[in-house]
User: Fold this.
Amino acid sequence: MLFKRTILTKILSTGMKAEFAIVKEAGAYKAALYINGRRIPGPPLPEKLDPPTEGLTHWMGNRPSVGLSSDEAEKIIREVELENSVLEHLRKERRKP
Assistant:
């Protein structure tokens, strides 16, 4: 896994620092959650909460998981999609004769 950059930082109600980063793994970019610098396994993009609670609409991580607002989730998703679109464009350019 190759760390690219941090997208979003939050201080959790527990006082811990959650960082959402773009990382490259298996030839594609995805989001990764770090809490106090430690990588937390989980989904590659924010997942929807069902049902949403107290202004939180998405989550990331797995033991612990971190809730996200729709704006935070959209920002993470948008940044990952942008990085993957650039990567795909570069791949297409390399294939051209």
User: Anything to note?
Assistant: The first strand starts at residue 2 and ends at 11. DSSP finds one helix and seven strands in the chain. The longest helix spans residues 70-95. Helices lie at 70-95.
